[in-house]
Amino acid sequence: MDTVSQIFDKWAKNGRDELMEKEHWKNVIKFLKTVSFDKPFSFLDVGCGNGWVVRKISESNHCKKAIGIDKSKNMILQANTKKKNKTEKYINTDIESLNDKVKFDFVFSMESLYYVDSIDVALKKIYKLLKPGGKFFCGTDFYSDNKATIKWSNMMKVQMHLLSKKEWVEKFKNTGFEVKTKHIKDLKNKKKWKREFGTLFITGEKAERQSSN
């Protein structure tokens, strides 16, 4: 088991998974409200933790299936205990190992993509997993423009890829995505960085028609 899985296994046992849910809930829900879920769709959450985003998404009348994956076995156990309906499914795996034969309309990731061995490899896999016209939403508080959070990697004592907003955009573009960014801020939060920088969301859209080149 790698160090990241070990850390999140411990967090799932000591209740920190619920703290993460509470920390991110406001900005994530605010972002998701800007997304149109007005027709039948499938949804994948990469690094789903205890499944809180999957549970929220699965409440949509148009949600056909919502799958959450996480490297932490204990996080998946927690997600299954909180399961609310039949459209939810949780799998103990990482993005690199996930079968890419099943395609999704939307892929989501909050505070997890920077833990992977290679962001480029992970992005290519996510691109494969998306249907033409599908979208990948990547949320992070850990980016170099936000000076208050760059100490997190030393605190966590694990590999965390620290990129700037510009570098994130470049990696998405190099993968083939059309890219948009949005900062979701919590203007009433006590923490200055949450008011001034907030969560960076990078949206990558896969073209409707793929080039034959």
Automatic annotation (TrEMBL):
InterPro entries: SAM-dependent_MTases_sf (IPR029063). The keyword DNA-binding does not apply. Pfam families: Methyltransf_23. The keyword Kinase does not apply. Keywords: Methyltransferase, Transferase. GO terms for biological process: methylation. One of its GO terms (molecular function) is S-adenosylmethionine-dependent methyltransferase activity. This is Methyltransferase domain protein. It comes from Candidatus Nitrosarchaeum limnium BG20.
